[in-house]
Amino acid sequence: MILKRNHKILALIFLLVLLVRIYFIFQTQYFDNSGYLVKRYTENILETGKPVLFDQLSYNGRETLYSPLWHYILAFFSLFLGDTAFKLVPSIFMSLLVFVIYSLSKRIIDNDELAFFIALMSGFIPIIFVNTLISISIYSLVIPLMFYLLYLFMDIDDKNVIKFVVLSFFLSLLHPVSMLFSLSLLVYYIICSSENLEINNLKKEVMIFNFISTFFIQFLIYKKAFLEYGIGVIWNNVPAQIISNYFNFDILNLLYNAGALTLIFGLIGIIYGVIRKKDKILLLSGLAFSTLILLWLRLIELKIGLMFLGISLVIASAFTLNLFLNYLEKTKIPYYRLSFIFIVLSLIVLSLAVPSFVFASRYVEENVPSDYEILIFNWIKENSLPDITVLSPLGKGHYISGIAGKRTVIDDNFLLAPETTERYNDVERIYQTSSEFEALELIQKYNIDYIFIPIDTELKYGKIKWIDDENCFKGIFFGTPKVYQVIC
Asked: Contact 344/259 with Cβ under 8 angstroms?
């Protein structure tokens, strides 16, 4: 009877998280910039059955390097759901996290009610809620899978070792962030060794298997990138001008994106668990510490690190909350216990759910193309030659290739892209230079046929004066954004 009750409550939490996500994702029929890259690669699989190995549209044509497993998964569901799969499937995968977090919390604290509450919290961590809404993000599957592996590893035995091996292999094929999981197990091993805590042989064996297989698979998939960039592959060939934005880490970012209350309770839980040598907290701290180290050394993209760190802190906060509740029980003053629970619930709603909703509304509004932009992209698609090149700022590149179906000068798919630092600098120079001669020189360098000028570019650099030369540039659209055709 208890199991049935638990299943019903978890199902309700799952549905609540899913319905809230659906509410936001269906406020628009469009995706953000990165979502159109995923959509385009998935549609290529639906049309040809093969992944995009050479992208004709990105950077005027370039070789690509990535694992296509996520795109094949989306393509499979698209056969039944059509384009709805791009919105619905990632949200379902992401909402499944509540089951995983509940199970993890139960193993740490053995308190049903508190585990339900922690599961609900995990569905509304701002950094995760916002960044997996309209981007068709692979992390919608990676995050629940990685924490399920953590759950399996906590009390691994002969019954679930095969499941752990298969899923860890699957995670390695899915995304390079699988290396973070391997590093977290390594940090866990180091912590246990330093505290003279025994790790059973089965755990040691699966740790060795995971570490070797993960890094071997990553080398096989990304061998060319390793050979070309060496250790620099960590920075993903990001242009030097913006690399600090990708890897910059500070405490304010953590407070803003993971929730202040989560940060406080989570850190207390990890510190106290390490001091008391709680094995399950030590395992969780392995993931938290390895993520913090990578963030501090700027070896992992900020938003990715914050997503994994945010969930780790939410789970660890269960340990802290349980300690407080047990303490209040000993006081034999139920009134204070109820008041504490009410205050904590209210503060968590303020620090997690409210920011998630506010940030999500803003993100959906600001990070999808407007109807006017869609009209422009469709006009370019239907009224220009197939092999033209459209200049756009970095953050609009996948709109050009994904909606207009035209070649771009630059986009944020940097790995193996040619001369990203030089291209980024050249694109910025075109938009900000006052010299028509310099602009034309760069336009010819990249064979640019159309120039796309969004409003944020004009706000950043001011009006482009040389674009008014009617002998060289023909105005097509004059609103926000503007489009000009190069005719000289």
From this structure: no
The three-point CA angle 226-230-232 to 5° equals 105
CA distances (Å), 253 to each of 95, 125, 128, 250, 310, in order? 24, 13, 13, 6, 11
- Contact partners, residue 402, CB within 8 Å, separation at least 6: 36, 37, 39, 40
The answer to whether 114 and 321 are in contact (CB under 8 A) is yes
pTM: 0.93
Write down the number of H helices and E strands in the chain.
24, 7
Q: Per-residue pLDDT tens, the chain, 488 aa: give them.
A: 455 788 899 999 999 999 999 999 999 999 999 999 999 999 999 999 999 999 999 999 999 999 999 999 999 999 999 999 999 999 999 999 999 999 999 999 888 888 998 999 999 998 899 999 999 999 999 999 999 999 999 989 888 999 999 999 999 999 999 999 999 999 999 999 888 888 889 999 999 999 999 999 999 999 999 888 887 788 888 888 888 777 666 666 666 667 777 888 888 999 888 888 888 999 999 999 999 888 887 888 888 988 999 899 999 998 888 887 777 777 656 566 677 677 777 777 778 888 889 889 999 988 999 999 999 999 999 999 889 999 999 999 999 999 999 999 999 999 999 999 999 999 999 999 989 999 999 999 999 999 999 999 888 888 888 898 888 999 999 888 999 999 98
Crossing angle between the packed helical segments 260-275 and 302-331, to the nearest 10 degrees:
70
Domains in the chain, ordered, with CATH?
Answer: 2-30+96-366 (no CATH), 371-486 (3.40.50.12610)
Taking CA atoms, 365 is separated from 32, 126, 256, in Å, by: 10, 16, 20
